[in-house]
Amino acid sequence: ETGVTQSPTHLIKTRGQQVTLRCSSQSGHNTVSWYQQALGQGPQFIFQYYREEENGRGNFPPRFSGLQFPNYSSELNVNALELDDSALYLCASSLGAGHTEAFFGQGTRLTVV
Amino acid sequence: SQQGEEDPQALSIQEGENATMNCSYKTSINNLQWYRQNSGRGLVHLILIRSNEREKHSGRLRVTLDTSKKSSSLLITASRAADTASYFCATGNDYKLSFGAGTTVTVRA
Fold first, then answer.
1. Of the candidates B38, B44, B48, B29, the residue with the CA atom closest to the CA atom of residue B92
2. Do B92 and A55 touch (CB under 8 A)?
């Protein structure tokens, strides 16, 4: 176990709806990154938060947004859900905003119907 | 787009055999990491090798890095059924990890 917890574990939403996914980072870690993993693919970087500020963003549209709270937990929000948003969403925490070892949660499996 | 590419895509071996998988990447890196994923759940960090290192060991794992060829290999020795998983290489630059599509390893009892 990495100490990174994500909720919920599974979620089914309808196209056009909005969803919020949550992540609690490992104790002492101030950086949270979010990744999207489609079936049969490797994880794709969505964005990173470091000390409550967005520190970098991948090639995802603005309807993917996030927050990091003072306790370093984080939320990923996706608006106007599309069928292609169906994926495993992974949260990773690390100590520092660089390219250090990342500790992943078990993920949230989102299905958009 | 994915930075790394693992080869082979899938590997099936007998328990006790060694498993080798390779990763190629396109741009310069600060480090390269290998992760394991069981049954589509969270990724587990296995090993990190920095760009100025050539080889690293951790238990039954051996990783090599050749920055001139932009490639890395992961060797799992004396495989066990519990090693059945998908293995991903990830290059680390700036603030993000860039993953390949992974190698699926099946260890037969």
1. B29
2. no
Per the model's pLDDT, the better-predicted residue between A17 and A51 turns out to be A17
Average pLDDT, stretch A91-101? Answer: 81
Tell me the nearest-neighbour CA distance from A76 into chain B, angstroms: 16
Q: How far is CA A27 from CA A52, A93, B68, in A?
A: 16, 9, 38
CB B93 within 8 A of CB B29: yes
One-letter identity of residue B80? R
User: Closest Cα partner for B87 from B49, B44, B48?
Assistant: B44
Task: Tell me if A99 and B40 make a contact (CB, 8 A cut-off).
Answer: no
Among the ranges given (A11-15, A102-106, B62-66), the one the predictor scored with the smallest mean pLDDT: A102-106
Amino acid at B68: S
Rounded to whole angstroms, how far apart are CA atoms B10 and B16? 18
Contacts of B68 (CB under 8 A, 6+ apart): none
Pairing state between β A103-104 and A87-94: antiparallel
In this model, does residue B1 exceed pLDDT 70? no
Distance from CA of B6 to the nearest CA of A (A): 10
Q: A63 phi and psi, to 5 degrees? A: -70, -10
